[in-house]
Amino acid sequence: MNLVYPLAHLMGGVILLCAFSMLSQRRLAAMITLYQVQALTLSAAAFWQGFAQGAGDLYLTGLITLAIKGILLPMGMRQIVQRFNMVRAVETTMPVGLSMILGVGLIGIAVLVVLPTTVSAVSLTREDLAISLSVVLLGLLVMTLRRHAIAQVIGFLSTENGLVLAATGMPGMPFVAELSVALLVLLAFLVIGVFLFRIREHFDTLDLVGIEEIERRGR
Amino acid sequence: MVLFFLRLVASLAHIALVFALAPLLLGLVTKLRARLLGRRGPPLLQPYRNLRRLLHKTTLVPDTATDLYPIWPFVSFTAIAVAAMLVPGFCLGLLTSDLSDFITLVGLLALARGAAMLAGLESGFGFGGAAAAREALFSVFAEAALLVVLVSFVLIAHSPTVDGIAAAFRTGHIGISVSLGFALAAMLAVALTETGRIPTDNPSGHLELAMVHEAMLLEYSGRFLLLFEYAAMLRLMVWMCLIGTVFFPFGMARAGEILSWPGGLVLWAGKLGVMAVALSLFEIGTAKMRVFRVPEFLGVAMLLGVLAGVFLFVAARIGA
Amino acid sequence: MNLCLPAVFLPLLAAPAMGVFGTRAQGAVANLVLNVIVFGFTIAVFFGPGSGLIHADGLGMIFGVLTSFVSLMTALSNLSFVWGGNEVLSLRRWRVYHAMCQVVLGSTLLGLYADNIGLLWVAVEGATIAATLGVSLPRTASALEAAWKYFILGGVGIALALFGTMLVYLAAQPALGPGLPAMSFAALTEHASKLDGSLLTLAFVFLLFGYGTKAALVPLHGWLPDAYAEGPIPLTTALSTLMLNVALIAILRYRHLMQANFAGGGGALQPGVFLLTLGLASLLLTAFSLSRRRDARRFFGFSSVEHSGIAVFAFGIGGAAAIFGGLLHMLVHTLVKSALFQALMRGAALRGSAAPGNYGFSHLRGMVHSNKYTGWLLGACVFALTGLPPSGLFASEFIIISQTIQRDPYVSLPLGLGLVLCAVAIIRNIGPLVFGHAPPHTKHQKAGIGINLVGLQLVLAFMVAFAMPWFLLHSLSSVAAALQ
Amino acid sequence: MHLRLDALSVLFLCILLPQIVASALAERRGPVTFWVFAAAMVLTLLAGDAFTLIFGFELMSAASWLLVLRGDARPATLYAGIAMFSAACLIPAVFLPASSLAFMLVLLGAGAKAGLAPLHSWLPRAHPAPPAGVSALMSGGMVKVSLYILIRYGFIEFGAAAQPWWGSVLIVAGAASVLIGALRAMLEVELKTMLACSTVEHVGLIAVGLGIALRAKAMGNLDLASLALQGALLCAVAHGLFKPMLFLGAGAVKNATGTTSLDWLGGLMRGMPRLGMLMLVGAAGMAALPLGPGFAPEFLLLHAVIRAAGTGGILARIGFTALLAGLGLSAALALGAVVRLIGIGFLGRPRSLHAAAAEDAKRGTLAGMGLLAVLCVPVALLPGVVLGMLEPVIALLAPNSAPAPLSYAPLSLGILFALTAGAAVLGLRRFAVRGTREVAAWTGGFGSPPAWLPFGDPLTQPSATGFAEPVRRAIARGLLAPKGVDPAEAYLLLPLSKVSLRLTRVAEHIRRSTMRQRLAFVFGALVMFLLALGLGEGG
């Protein structure tokens, strides 16, 4: 039997699982690990899709993903966590249970939105789409629920993973590699930004409350 | 041609009579009042004497008065005098009958009132100003009441002129209607206010704080005061003629037919006499009211006027 | 031949060089020269629209010229801004600043000329990153904060836009087959009715949110006021005019896809309701946010929110006339806004320094006492924003309102309410700002020759609205008809 | 953008032009804005299509707003708000088909700009702000332009769809304006504010006339319609003449004494006799006294009301009778206000050294006022002729109606006046003692004034406030909101401003939101949209 789609779905499922369990994690280190797993799975998925569709640039995408997201970024973030000794637990703004219920709701919405829409589309991309959409939404949810900049960055990164997943799932979509590179530039700036904030002594902690303080001062 | 001539004569006669009898009327009212109060009272012709005395007095002008000081008496007098020419007395169909629009009449009275108020303010003197302010307050309600009464007249008589209204009413088939009764009451109240009689003002009062009409003229003397006095007498005459003509038009002469004149004259004199008696009776019967009661008094009059209009409508519905 | 390519790539290629070499003065001059050349190219594009991935359709041509013109004006006023020593930046940052100006220009033009949805997305992303860097340049606490906000929110927007873009491809791919055609606006528009309508609708929502973030529609506008207020002011001009336009035009193009699909029975929803919702939200929230601003640049940032809201509203109303009104509104608003920000810069310069933080109304008030001409021009610019005649915006708003009445009378009530409230909130600042009592120790000074640029742009705005040259009228109306 | 000229626009141009000339004379080549303002009004009157009309109207608002702003910044915002509100009402209205909704919008838009109750309270604040010439033009001209739009759309454009109740609404609004305007004119102490209030009153009078005409026309009673139209239009003409005159005079007073507060004036007749005479003419018009320019319109309107009381059911009867009472009330109040203006301001003793030292107005002002005064004469003495000129307009507004001839003949009245006055003068010459003797006025029992008050102690003569006191106590308590505030402000503007304040607070709250909250907005909105989409497509 054809292994293409089952495997693709399996990997998609793993990625979604990572994104979902990020919600439940309280500690930064664990979130980073989850992200790493997610990225690695993604690169695998990219390779697999490239193999399945016989599209060369998907290999490139997978390579980039593996190298940068799977290895470099997690290392960098661990660095930050170590240096700014933030190994301690992240306080979330919302009890984990509630946030997970929200996450389930989001997945439900994603399925609700995607499944009826893609009747005519290639049936297989349908589930891929549902999965990647839920990954995107979950990432956004993490961004809005977490206080620490690192946590938010991770949320953003997982959103971006969802995007790449969708891109790889698109049958024969051109520019996938280019787009993922462009996204990477964005991520790079994001992480650099985090460094900037840390290096320059404007906010004694990355906790965005610092920013909000200035915001409160009016105007 | 003859008709026109007759009307001219009638008009002139009317004017002459009105102007000549106005002081007498005042004298009559004063006399009657004094008698009813058990006093002898001044002679009937006292008003004429007053006027003559004023003729021979030097006119004193306060140094704070402006150049317009002499104007106001003339304006006030002229407005009232013209009103007196317009309101028919003993006979209908005068030359001025077309001019005698009710609203014009109201306007003339307002003009005279305005001139008097300005006269009160002329020399920047406290009592005159206070009196003018009160007069302004009274006039607000008086004018409203008068206009409201007008509705029922015009709707019954289908004519806005006093002459036309009288002509319509004297052809008796309107009969006595409730609304006209209300209208009469309202009109009387207004008349009392306008002519400055008790209960709104006391013509024979001498306390500046209490006076309205007289207080506005305190700074005037000599011939200017004469004009004001004469205007006041004429005003009384005008109102009596107005009420007599509108509500008791029976027996009024026609300018066209000379034979009806004597009857008209007699009846007119009779009406004036009756009204003078009624007025003096009313005046001794009531006391002067506080300034801020007057608006209520006149407000009631206004309400009566509205009621008159409404009842007229109802009556029309019932009749139809 | 394709003249779009040089217009797009000249600034993009020059940017790295400018980022590395040159003093700040040289950078400013180079900036100006490049702008002049690019302006020439954008005009020449009318004769060489070209074809393929990057080519100019009517919309691209018109707004390309507008873009390069505005950025030329900005570059001109840039000279005095740079030489005026208004901004204290290290040389490195000056270089970055000039490079960023070029990147913004280039990527904006790319966004206008791109015929490929992916390319459009890349352009917008590049512009965003450049603008973020620019905003963070002053390195003040509030500037970094603003940049950070801008970056996070803009990043989210960009991610959503990418997702939408991919969905569009997915919707088109069955009909147009895999590969480039399924990403080309021309091809998509051609076969709009064959696309998968329901996917397209889903895509539109994401695109609306993605590009709506760039267009600063409520509730996606969170980044805007700070980003406007904290960056160097010439950049603010670019932000509030050029990038807004790109985003709006992107929304317009996708809206047309959807509308055409709906009309062709492709099963898409009517795009109108989404656009109307966001447009009205922007209008009404702005109306009440304006009234308490104490900083002029934040204030006018919010007014940009209002105006992009109006434009989106017009697109939502639909129909050739309304689209025409919306485009006209964008044109005029671009000119007026850039004039306004330049006038503000000159005014602040008269009051000492044009660096961020010197734009409080209390600091700028009574401008006529500093310089009569500047004061009156400033007043005229602010007044032009209210949309009362003789402002050019009157014409466009008039068209939009009349179309609203005819097509959708009920939404005209909130529209009118929002317009009135915004206009009142804007107009009440003119009195103090222009004629009020100047702060103590204000001397009457000479305004530079450059102040005439402001007048020039105002006059242009008036001309565009009331005495539109026939060819512009013709091409704009044909564009509107094509995109209805 | 094309122009048109028909009888209506010609009439309003004729109303407008003398004012422009007079104001220009008084302002002697006023600022550019002034001319833009004037030109915009003319453009509005000449407009041949909706765009031109709105353009001119808005340009007029904008220019006048700038003029108000230069005069006094405080009312400017309120004025701008009202102007834009009227724009927001008018622009839709001109596009809707003829319907009740469209007419109501026009009524709101034009009425707000014309100062019809309950949207009038900006007028007494904004009109006094700019220099006299501009105030004159705003009060005499701009208001008329708004009424022009009301007439044009109520009678011509929407004439086919007219309903009787349109007229009734107009009448009610007009009556309210008449009452409040007259009452406030009696109470205000500032000269220009008082004149502005009386403008509200006259706008109300015109509106009442128009309303009766609209109602009668819709009910098919064309003669009544034409009578009411005669009244309304003649009132517009007369008001357009005497009100600018009074405003110019007020400006001259301000120039001469530095104040327009009646409580600091007095005895100006000595210092500025010519101005005083011209003011008398205008005042006669404002008080609608016989032989003045204001009486004929009042006369016609009252007759129209009385005639209208005969039509319709019991409600109409009660309503119109009450309306008549209201008109009488306000007519007397207007007389009181005028007496107060002339008597306190120009007669009596000065209340301040400035007033004592006032010198007569400049030649330009006098020329402008003189021009208007001369134009008042035909309106005052030959209203029949003026009405004859109005024929085509009335034919345009109420087709195939036969206006009844005017039953008020000021000329013959005037002759009677002249005869009587002449007789009185001659009689006194003949019989009375000649000459007068100037004596010190009676101090009314007060002590002699201190030396530094050569014209006596101001406190010993009635003040404007005191003069209005009886009316305040007797009437204002009932009709105005507590503390004599205009009811429109107390019950309309104040609540609105409170609401907007609350909303502003909400907006501020949103603006201050932290970044996570802003992210949450985006995310929440997205989820909302997606949810709506999913449900919409699933269901």
UniProtKB/TrEMBL annotation, chain A:
InterPro entries: HyfE-like. The keyword Cell cycle does not apply. It is found in: Cell membrane. Signal peptide: none annotated. The chain crosses the membrane at residues 6-23, 30-52, 58-75, 96-117, 129-146, 153-173, 179-197. Keywords: Cell membrane, Membrane, Transmembrane, Transmembrane helix. It is a multi-pass membrane protein. PANTHER family: HYDROGENASE-4 COMPONENT E. This is Hydrogenase-4 component E. It comes from Acidocella aquatica. The lineage of its organism: Bacteria, Pseudomonadati, Pseudomonadota, Alphaproteobacteria, Acetobacterales.
Automatic annotation (TrEMBL), chain B:
It is found in: Membrane. Keywords: Membrane, Transmembrane, Transmembrane helix. Pfam families: NADHdh (PF00146). Its main location: membrane. The chain crosses the membrane at residues 71-95, 102-121, 136-156, 168-192, 230-253, 265-285, 297-316. It is a multi-pass membrane protein. InterPro entries: ComplexI_Subunit1, NADH_UbQ_OxRdtase_su1/FPO. This is Formate hydrogenlyase. It comes from Acidocella aquatica. The gene is hycC.
Automatic annotation (TrEMBL), chain C:
InterPro entries: ComplexI-like_HydComp, NADH_UbQ_OxRdtase, ND/Mrp_TM. It is found in: Cell membrane; Membrane. It comes from the Bacteria. Keywords: Cell membrane, Membrane, Oxidoreductase, Transmembrane, Transmembrane helix. It holds the Pfam family Proton_antipo_M. Coiled coil: none annotated. Residues 114-415 form the NADH:quinone oxidoreductase/Mrp antiporter transmembrane domain. The keyword Transmembrane helix applies. The chain crosses the membrane at residues 29-47, 59-84, 96-114, 119-138, 150-172, 193-213, 233-252, 273-290, 310-336, 375-401, 413-435, 447-472. It is a multi-pass membrane protein. This is Oxidoreductase. It comes from Acidocella aquatica. The gene is hyfF.
